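Assemble and predict.
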Amino acid sequence: MNKLTLLFTGIFLTFGSAWVGLVAYPVANLGHLQPLPNEETGGVNPPTVSGLAVAGQKVYAANGCMECHTQQVRPDPLTTDIAKQLGKRQTVPRDEIREHTPFLGEYRIGQDLSNFGARQTDVAAIHRHLYSPKSVSPWSNMPSYSYLYEYRKVVSQPSANALQGLTGPRAPKPGYEVVPTQQAEALVAYLLSLNQNYPLPESPEPTAK
Ligand code: HEC
């Protein structure tokens, strides 16, 4: 074999094996996954993301939330995710088919959010936290997403959806209010939709030891 043929064969094998391992094999294995019927609700598992939550998925992506938050409950007993009540069972590929781009994430600077909607349902508290994380947890190093909120003068009546109970430097001055934009409303709808408390046969809940 002359040197040029050897070089091109080597390049082909290098990229070809990466393509087989990273694209062809996963698609053959997981590409056919479909939601399963949910007999109780008449819907499917995992439930489809609908309404405002679809727009919220885009806000989540655009703001880089996955830089600090994972969305994957890792297996028991290799990790303590289930003991820490991040979820009742391990996340499996079928859980992710509801996401256009799964936000598995790599770093957990903040908590895992796969089941955030199951542990927090107080919409006002979620808005307060996004607007000013430090007003909820003084030690928090989560950035403020105050630009998803409108800081404005109260005209005649305070708005019905204005944030209540804000404290600290970002709290509105008397006569002013903080109101969620549509993006903030969508993001909160998405966060509330994060809930993997439906059964999947390939991911049974670990039995108590
Ligand atoms: C720089 C890292 C960082 C980024 C980026 C970040 N967070 Fe956080 N987040 C944290 C940390 C740290 C905490 C824990 C402290 C706290 O509660 O503020 C947290 C907590 C949370 C919680 C509460 C979780 C729980 O279980 O109580 C939610 C919800 C949340 N973040 C949503 C978001 C969303 C939505 C975005 C994007 C708009 C985002 N975070 C971006 C670091 C981050």
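Residues 60, 63-65, 67-69, 109-111, 116, 120, 133, 137, 140-143, 145, 187, 191 surround heme C (CB under 6 Å).
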